[in-house]
C-alpha cells in the first residue's frame, strides 16, 4: 500500500499506513497543520485506499467553508450504501472555518458514520475546530515540509525553484506554488529595501501604491509571506499584530493599497514613539 503522490510527513504516513493495513483507521478523524503541506491530498488518498476508489470519495469546503446545505447533502450521500467499491469517504476541507450551524449539522454523522463510511476533517488550526467536532475525531498532526521537499514539489510541477520563494513559503508547498506565480517575492524585496532606507516614512505611499491594482488574494499572500519572513528574524511583535489586523481589514473588503499603507504607518510611526 502506498500514498504515491505524497511528499514528506514520513512519520504520519507510517502511522496511517499501519492503521489502514490493520483495518483500524478511525471512521472520523481530523488532519491539522499549516496550509499547503498536503493534508487534503493525504486525506483523499487515504480514503481512496479505504474505500477502493477515488470515485468513492467526496471533497467539500475547498473553495469556501462548507455550508449547512452542503453538509446535509454529503451526509445523505454517505449514508446511501455504495454500489461500487467497498466504502465511501468524505473530506471536509477548512473545517476550522465552518459556521456553527454547518458544524452542528455534521455532529451526528461524525459521531455515528455508517460502518462502510469515513470522514476526515482538514483544518489549519486544531483549536479553531469546535470542541464538539474535535472530540469526536482522532487527530493527526502535520508539520511544515522541509525546503528540499518544497523544492522537489515545485520541480515536479515544472516550476524552477527560487530560493526566495522557498524561504518565504516556510515549508508550505501550496504557498510556494502561489508565490512562484505572483509578484509577491519582488514586493517583499522592495519592502526590505524600504525598511533599510533612512527615508522609510517618505517611501510608504510609493510602496503601498504597488497594491493599487493588486487583488485581495495576492495582497493576503503578501501579508502571509511577510509574516513568514519576519518569523525567521529577530523582530518586534508589533508587526504580527499589524499583519493580523491587515488580514481582517482585507476580509471586510478593505482596499489592498489602504491596508498596506495603514500597516506600515501603524508600525513605523509606532516605533518612533
Q: Domains counted in the coordinates: how many?
A: 2
Beta-strand content: 5-15%
What's the order of the H and E elements?
A: HEHEHEHEHEHHHHHHHH
Radius of gyration: 21 Å
Task: Lay out the secondary structure.
Elements: H1 10-21, E1 28-32, H2 39-51, E2 57-60, H3 68-78, E3 88-92, H4 100-111, E4 117-123, H5 131-134, E5 138-141, H6 147-156, H7 163-169, H8 173-180, H9 184-196, H10 200-208, H11 216-231, H12 238-251, H13 256-272
Parallel strand pairs: 1-4, 1-5, 2-3, 3-4
Helix pairs in contact: 1-2, 3-4, 7-8, 9-10, 9-11, 10-13, 11-12, 12-13
Account of the protein in words:
- There is one protein chain.
- By secondary structure, this protein is an alpha/beta fold.
- The chain has 2 domains: 10-141, 3-Layer(aba) Sandwich (Rossmann fold), CATH 3.40.50.300; 182-272.
- It is built from 13 helices and 5 strands.
- Helix 3 packs parallel to helix 4 and helix 11 runs antiparallel to helix 12 (238-251).
- It is elongated, with a radius of gyration of 21 Å.
- The model has no long low-confidence stretch (mean pLDDT 91).
Amino acid at each position: 500500500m502506498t500514498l504515491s503522490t505524497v511528499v514528506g510527513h514520513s512519520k504520519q504516513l507510517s502511522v496511517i499506513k499501519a492503521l489502514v493495513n490493520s483495518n483500524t483507521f478511525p471512521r472520523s478523524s481530523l488532519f491539522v497543520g499549516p496550509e499547503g503541506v498536503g493534508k487534503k491530498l493525504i486525506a483523499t488518498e487515504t480514503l481512496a485506499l479505504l474505500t477502493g476508489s477515488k470515485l468513492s470519495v467526496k471533497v467539500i469546503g475547498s473553495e469556501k467553508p462548507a455550508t449547512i446545505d452542503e453538509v446535509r447533502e454529503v451526509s445523505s450521500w454517505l449514508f446511501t450504501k455504495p454500489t461500487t467499491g467497498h466504502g465511501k469517504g468524505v473530506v471536509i476541507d477548512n473545517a476550522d472555518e465552518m459556521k456553527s450551524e454547518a458544524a452542528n449539522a455534521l455532529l451526528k454523522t461524525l459521531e455515528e458514520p455508517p460502518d462502510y463510511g469515513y470522514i476526515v476533517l482538514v483544518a489549519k488550526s486544531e483549536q479553531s475546530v469546535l470542541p464538539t467536532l474535535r472530540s469526536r475525531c482522532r487527530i493527526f498532526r502535520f508539520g511544515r515540509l522541509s525546503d528540499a521537499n518544497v523544492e522537489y514539489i515545485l520541480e515536479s510541477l515544472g516550476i524552477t525553484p527560487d530560493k526566495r520563494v522557498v524561504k518565504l513559503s516556510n515549508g508550505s508547498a501550496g504557498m510556494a506554488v502561489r508565490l512562484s506565480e505572483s509578484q509577491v517575492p519582488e514586493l517583499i524585496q522592495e519592502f526590505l529595501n524600504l525598511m533599510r532606507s533612512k527615508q522609510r516614512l517618505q517611501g510608504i505611499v510609493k510602496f503601498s501604491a504597488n497594491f493599487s491594482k493588486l487583488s485581495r488574494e495576492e495582497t493576503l499572500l503578501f501579508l502571509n509571506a511577510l509574516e513568514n519572513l519576519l518569523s525567521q528574524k529577530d523582530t518586534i511583535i508589533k508587526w504580527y499584530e499589524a499583519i493580523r489586523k491587515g488580514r481582517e481589514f482585507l476580509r471586510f473588503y478593505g482596499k489592498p493599497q489602504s491596508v498596506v499603507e495603514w500597516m506600515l504607518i501603524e508600525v513605523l510611526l509606532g516605533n518612533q514613539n
